[in-house]
Design brief:
Chain lengths: 204, 521
């Protein structure tokens, strides 16, 4: 399929004597939601971080068509900026959008995710679910074809989890490629198009 | 009237302000009780405790160059003469020059003898002995100006330096108004002459004893023959000690009559005809004015006016000095913040050699006293760069505080969570953008409280710049207090002015902090 936008090939990464990733290969196509499952310490978060360019790896190859967006487990919204400013920061400063265009686009995203009424709130004033939606909107504001999500359901109650599932379905319909690390078996079974199992730095 | 260590006066002054505020009414009685208690403990009538400042040097009081634990000087010999007359053993107590009067009032010693000037204020607020030496205030100018600059009237638009808290400074303040010269006060009697030679001041007005002493060690200036004013050295005692003062006066008069004072001053090469006339007048019972200025530049004493009147007279000067303090503090802090940010950024992002250099700077500055740094910048570097006093003060305080600020910013930068920076990176922001848009602004919020702390500290540390002749609030207060003979009103005013400057600042910082809690930058 020509729609593959993310390819990871034989990724090796070690921290000190410990091999965190020992030859990970995977690919994700547009319209796919791939879940990496595995116990804590199995290396699933590290795969996402390596793809996002946050972890230097010693061997292997990562190929992405366009950019990747990343949604962290703890969101990491910029604490000193409002939701709106969080979303507009990169489009304006890194991608040359005019502030007006950036705001318009940010507002569309916030509306689509049902948090437009929280546009002027600071991160500390947001609930876990709201913060996650703002974080997804921030990642999508620079329009990446690939979105990485680390433990997206960790801070959500069951009702919010299915809302998140719906939201991700919407993103798949926009032809994006989604890769998430999770140990939420139910969520993965319900919403993922494909589930990969990881243990001791390798995919099984 | 001579040189002394410079750090002490401020501490002494500030301590006095504190005491004046805490014990406004009870101070005198309290001090007397302590004095009596001490005198009792030290067996009264056996020991004669006299106070002076050996850093002043010859011919007043100095450590014997051949035997440093022994004191020599004409004041030492006069103290011994008085002690002999009283049948007591002399005991010397080292007190910083500017604190001698306050120490005497406190009861630390019986008599202050250290080239102390006779002034109307001292006569009104202390028990003062008969004058034992008459001096002339003389102008010293650079050799090249010797023919043209002879009297104060010749100094319109020029700068004249002297020691602070002296008659000479009062005369110069009057001459500022009368002749349009600029008076600069120093905390010691060496730097006026070195600054004269390098051109920072155009003349120095001090007594001829000091001028002649400096003339032997600092080449390049001429002492003008004209007498600008005549003054006297006296011993000072606390007002409760008037009976002892009367005994001391008797001994001094006896020493004038039998020539022993003359022998002392001749040994130190400072005897002249003025003293014969002074002693003759005193022995005939003629009144001797504290000082006279033939040019009509007598200064008016504050002791004769009401406290309110004194306050009204000094308030404009105190407000001007406050303005100097606040402007200097704000500018210094501004420069310190900019340099501090650069140092902190270099220490967090720089290559190892740069980091090592910056760390060295921070440790050097933090590990040495600000006072020393001010001296180095103003006097030490004078041969290479001759900075004006205000600029040197600004630079000195700013460079010092930059080191402290940089540590605050460095730790604040390092305290911003890594996730914040990683989020910035995954969005495509450059390292510089992450610093200026995310890390910096968040660090600033963490740094605000310690920065406010530092600014308030700087406001008070700025009092040290008076050693560079900058007339700021604490120095002006000290002058006010000396002229008034009391610290109560000047000290209270000074404290109030410092609080007026620091409290709004602290309030503004708190408002900003609250604002940041509820809304974005």
């Amino acid at each position: 399929m020509n729609d593959v936008v993310l390819t990871v090939d034989d990724l090796h990464l070690r921290r000190g004597p410990r091999a965190v990733l020992a030859g990970v290969s995977l690919s994700v196509a547009r319209g796919e939601l791939v879940a990496i499952m595995g116990p804590s310490g199995s290396g699933k978060t590290t795969v996402l971080r390596a793809i996002a360019g946050l972890e230097p790896y010693e061997r292997g190859h990562v190929a992405v068509t366009g950019r990747v967006g990343m949604v962290f487990q703890f969101h990491y919204l910029f604490e000193h900026l409002t939701a709106m400013q969080n979303i507009c920061l990169a489009p304006v400063h890194a991608h040359g959008l005019s502030p007006d265009d950036a705001r318009r686009r940010a507002y569309e995203l916030l509306s689509a995710f049902g948090v437009d009424h929280r546009a002027e709130a600071l991160p500390r004033q947001l609930s876990g679910g709201e913060a996650q939606r703002v974080a997804i909107a921030r990642a999508l504001a620079v329009d990446p074809p690939v979105l990485l999500m680390d433990e997206p359901t960790a801070s959500l109650d069951p009702a919010r989890r299915s809302e998140l599932g719906e939201l991700l379905q919407g993103l798949l319909r926009q032809n994006r490629a989604l890769l998430m690390a999770t140990h939420d078996e139910d969520f993965a079974r319900t919403w993922a198009t494909r589930v990969l199992r990881m243990e001791n730095g390798v995919l099984r | 009237m001579h040189g002394f260590h410079v750090a002490q006066p401020f501490r002494a002054a500030i301590a006095s302000v504190a005491i004046a505020i805490v014990f406004p009414a009870g101070l005198k009685g309290f001090a007397t009780t302590i004095a009596e208690a001490r005198a009792g403990a030290a067996e009264p009538a056996k020991v004669f405790r006299w106070a002076g400042d050996p850093e002043g040097g010859a011919p007043f009081v100095e450590a014997d160059p051949r035997q440093p634990d022994r004191l020599v000087g004409f004041d030492v010999e006069i103290a011994n003469l008085i002690a002999r007359g009283l049948g007591r053993t002399p005991e010397f107590i080292t007190i910083t020059f500017t604190s001698i009067v306050q120490s005497i009032v406190r009861g630390d010693a019986d008599v202050g003898l250290s080239g102390l000037e006779d002034t109307p204020t001292r006569r009104a607020t202390l028990a003062v002995t008969v004058p034992y030496y008459e001096f002339r205030e003389v102008l010293s100018v650079r050799d090249a100006d010797a023919a043209t600059l002879r009297t104060l009237a010749d100094f319109r638009g020029r700068t004249v330096g002297t020691l602070s808290d002296t008659i000479a400074y009062d005369i110069l303040l009057r001459a500022e108004r009368e002749y349009g010269l600029r008076a600069v006060s120093y905390d010691d009697d060496v730097h006026p002459y070195t600054d004269l030679v390098i051109g920072r001041v155009d003349a120095v007005l001090l007594d001829q004893v000091l001028a002649e002493r400096r003339h032997r060690s600092v080449p390049g200036f001429t002492i003008q023959p004209e007498t600008i004013a005549v003054g006297h050295y006296v011993g000072v005692l606390s007002p409760q000690n008037a009976p002892l003062r009367d005994s001391v006066d008797e001994i001094l008069r006896g020493a004038m009559r039998d020539g022993s004072l003359e022998r002392i001053f001749r040994r130190w090469n400072v005897w002249n005809g003025d003293q014969s006339r002074l002693y003759a007048d005193l022995l005939q019972g003629k009144p001797v004015q504290p000082f006279t200025a033939p040019g009509g530049l007598e200064t008016s004493s504050l002791v004769t006016v009401s406290k309110w009147e004194a306050m009204k007279r000094y308030l404009p000067a105190l407000l001007r000095a406050s303005l100097v303090t606040i402007v200097l503090s704000c500018l210094s802090m501004g420069v310190a913040v900019v340099i501090g940010v650069l140092i902190a950024t270099g220490r967090v992002y720089g290559a190892p050699p740069l980091r090592a250099i910056l760390l060295g700077y921070v440790e050097l500055i933090r590990g040495t006293p600000l006072l020393l740094q001010l001296f180095v910048i103003y006097y030490g570097l004078a041969a290479a760069i001759r900075l004006p006093a205000f600029a040197a003060a600004l630079l000195g305080v700013a460079l010092n505080y930059a080191a402290y600020e940089s540590e605050i910013y460095r730790s604040a930068l390092e305290a911003v969570p890594a996730g914040q920076l990683e989020a910035g990176r995954t969005l495509g922001l450059s390292t510089r953008q992450v610093l200026t848009l995310i890390r910096g602004p968040q660090a600033l919020r963490l740094a605000l409280a310690p920065m406010t702390n530092d600014f308030v500290a700087l406001l008070k540390d700025s009092s040290l710049v008076s050693v560079l002749t900058v007339m700021e609030l604490t120095k002006q207060t000290q002058i006010f207090a000396t002229n008034l003979g009391s610290w109560v009103i000047p000290g209270t005013l000074c404290a109030a002015l410092y609080l007026l400057m620091s409290l709004p600042l602290a309030a503004a910082a708190r408002r900003l902090e609250r604002h940041w809690k509820t809304s974005a930058a």
